[in-house]
């Protein structure tokens, strides 16, 4: 028995419940992604100003610590993906949750931890120690939250479905989009009603106790390990004109040699970059456009309604059309969002960003989850998605400093937004080549 299979029938046997266990996995995976919110940028952004005030370092310095901590975490995610392939969803998710919970507790005491080493906040040594401590904590936060916990939850769901993969992902994406959209306001409300320290402690307790138990009870890896099949019934490799089940199981090395791998992974990475920079400097970006903190935080509400509708339709339709058509839609949304941010005001560009970002956020989870098992199979899904997550996390790491430098050195956030828009335009031009690599292997199979 492999390690990932141990305890699959405890505290209950998944094949004994009166309906297909994949629907339980849908619920569990959605909770898993939502539990990663404190490790996402929107979870950090509401605490940024409090960290600057209490840790006593500048915005550029806190951004640098965030960047290098996130970059360091990105280098570990391919390794984490291989551990997922080895140990399975349950044990990997529990380990990630434990690391995330401990990190949140440490962040709540970060300024006090720094002063254990250096008390003089005006000294150069203090600044160096402060940046080093924050870098380490951001590394743990991003690795466990944005990286591993998110990756494991999404992969688990995709292993339990094939024919309905897009449909169930669309359902999950609705609740994830809603949860992430209200997270900044929720976290801010928690801070206002308690304190920034206690808010992180409460989150840490919820994840370290509540979610840890939840993951142990409900998370399961391959349905085949429990003598079950994805979807609860067998399907052929193709449904109508769309390949839904891989003919060839690609390794990570083989996947990276295909052009579609980069055409799909890079837009996801650049989305992560622009939205990370936006949420990290959210209040500042809106202040420079003449709008206050309340207006900035409120923008996520209309975006959530738009992204919910797009998630449902996009998830359903992804089972029926080539994914490159959804890629066109995402890249167009990114262009609209970036150009709107470049010229942000209280009028048309405010609503332009809502439209563009709603388009992208609605389909991000669809492309992030459905693409890799359909294009490259399930056998090496952990290592492949681990590498994709490393690209996404690495890109997100660059955002806070990139935006900060654009603002402090060039005098405006606009230059960062326009530069990213130019890159997205190039990818959009090339995206017509984003076909499923499995097409070739189906033809080879027919010849044989």
UniProtKB/TrEMBL annotation:
<feature type="domain" description="Major facilitator superfamily (MFS) profile">
    <location>
        <begin position="25"/>
        <end position="439"/>
    </location>
</feature>
<dbReference type="InterPro" id="IPR050327">
    <property type="entry name" value="Proton-linked_MCT"/>
</dbReference>
<feature type="transmembrane region" description="Helical">
    <location>
        <begin position="166"/>
        <end position="187"/>
    </location>
</feature>
<feature type="transmembrane region" description="Helical">
    <location>
        <begin position="20"/>
        <end position="41"/>
    </location>
</feature>
<feature type="transmembrane region" description="Helical">
    <location>
        <begin position="61"/>
        <end position="79"/>
    </location>
</feature>
<feature type="transmembrane region" description="Helical">
    <location>
        <begin position="296"/>
        <end position="318"/>
    </location>
</feature>
<feature type="transmembrane region" description="Helical">
    <location>
        <begin position="91"/>
        <end position="109"/>
    </location>
</feature>
<feature type="transmembrane region" description="Helical">
    <location>
        <begin position="261"/>
        <end position="284"/>
    </location>
</feature>
<protein>
    <submittedName>
        <fullName>MFS transporter</fullName>
    </submittedName>
</protein>
<dbReference type="GO" id="GO:0022857">
    <property type="term" value="F:transmembrane transporter activity"/>
</dbReference>
<dbReference type="InterPro" id="IPR036259">
    <property type="entry name" value="MFS_trans_sf"/>
</dbReference>
<dbReference type="InterPro" id="IPR011701">
    <property type="entry name" value="MFS"/>
</dbReference>
<feature type="transmembrane region" description="Helical">
    <location>
        <begin position="325"/>
        <end position="344"/>
    </location>
</feature>
<feature type="transmembrane region" description="Helical">
    <location>
        <begin position="350"/>
        <end position="372"/>
    </location>
</feature>
<keyword id="KW-0472">Membrane</keyword>
<feature type="transmembrane region" description="Helical">
    <location>
        <begin position="124"/>
        <end position="145"/>
    </location>
</feature>
<dbReference type="Pfam" id="PF07690">
    <property type="entry name" value="MFS_1"/>
</dbReference>
<keyword id="KW-0812">Transmembrane</keyword>
<feature type="transmembrane region" description="Helical">
    <location>
        <begin position="384"/>
        <end position="403"/>
    </location>
</feature>
<feature type="transmembrane region" description="Helical">
    <location>
        <begin position="415"/>
        <end position="432"/>
    </location>
</feature>
<keyword id="KW-1133">Transmembrane helix</keyword>
<feature type="transmembrane region" description="Helical">
    <location>
        <begin position="199"/>
        <end position="219"/>
    </location>
</feature>
<dbReference type="InterPro" id="IPR020846">
    <property type="entry name" value="MFS_dom"/>
</dbReference>
């Amino acid at each position: 028995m492999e390690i990932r299979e141990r305890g699959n029938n405890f505290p209950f046997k998944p094949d004994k419940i009166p309906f297909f266990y994949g629907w339980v996995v849908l619920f569990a995976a959605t909770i898993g992604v939502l539990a990663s919110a404190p490790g996402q940028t929107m979870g950090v952004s509401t605490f940024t100003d409090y960290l600057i005030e209490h840790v006593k370092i500048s915005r550029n310095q806190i951004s640098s610590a965030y960047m290098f901590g996130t970059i360091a975490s990105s280098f570990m995610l391919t390794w984490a993906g291989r551990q997922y392939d080895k140990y399975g969803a349950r044990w990997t998710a529990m380990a990630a949750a434990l690391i995330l919970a401990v990190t949140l507790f440490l962040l709540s005491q970060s300024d006090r931890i720094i002063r254990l080493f250096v008390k003089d906040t005006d000294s150069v040594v203090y600044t160096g120690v402060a940046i080093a401590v924050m870098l380490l904590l951001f590394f743990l936060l991003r690795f466990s939250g944005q990286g591993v916990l998110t990756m494991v939850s999404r992969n688990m769901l995709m292993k339990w479905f094939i024919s309905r993969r897009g449909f169930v992902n669309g359902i999950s994406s609705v609740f994830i989009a809603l949860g992430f959209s209200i997270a900044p306001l929720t976290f801010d409300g928690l801070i206002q009603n308690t304190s920034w320290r206690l808010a992180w402690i409460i989150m840490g307790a919820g994840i370290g106790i509540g979610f840890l138990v939840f993951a142990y009870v409900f998370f399961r890896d391959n349905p085949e390990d429990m003598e079950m099949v994805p979807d609860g019934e067998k399907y052929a490799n193709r449904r109508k004109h769309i390949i839904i089940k891989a003919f060839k199981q690609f390794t990570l090395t083989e996947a990276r040699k295909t052009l579609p791998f980069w055409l799909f992974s890079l837009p996801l990475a650049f989305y992560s970059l622009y939205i990370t920079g936006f949420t990290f400097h959210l209040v500042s970006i809106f202040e420079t456009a003449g709008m206050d903190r309340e207006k900035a935080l409120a923008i996520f509400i209309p975006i959530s309604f738009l992204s919910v509708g797009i998630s449902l339709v996009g998830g359903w339709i992804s089972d029926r059309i080539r994914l490159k058509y959804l890629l066109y839609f995402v890249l167009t949304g990114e262009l609209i969002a970036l150009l709107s941010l470049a010229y942000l005001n209280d009028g048309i560009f405010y609503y332009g960003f809502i439209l563009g970002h709603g388009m992208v956020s609605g389909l991000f989870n669809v492309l992030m989850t459905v693409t890799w098992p359909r294009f490259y199979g399930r056998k090496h899904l952990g290592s492949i998605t681990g590498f994709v997550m490393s690209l996404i996390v690495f890109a997100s790491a660059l955002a806070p400093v990139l935006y900060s430098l654009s603002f402090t050195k060039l005098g405006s956030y606009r230059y960062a937004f326009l530069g990213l828009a130019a890159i997205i335009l190039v990818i959009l031009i090339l995206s017509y080549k984003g076909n499923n690599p499995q097409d070739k292997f189906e033809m080879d199979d027919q010849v044989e």
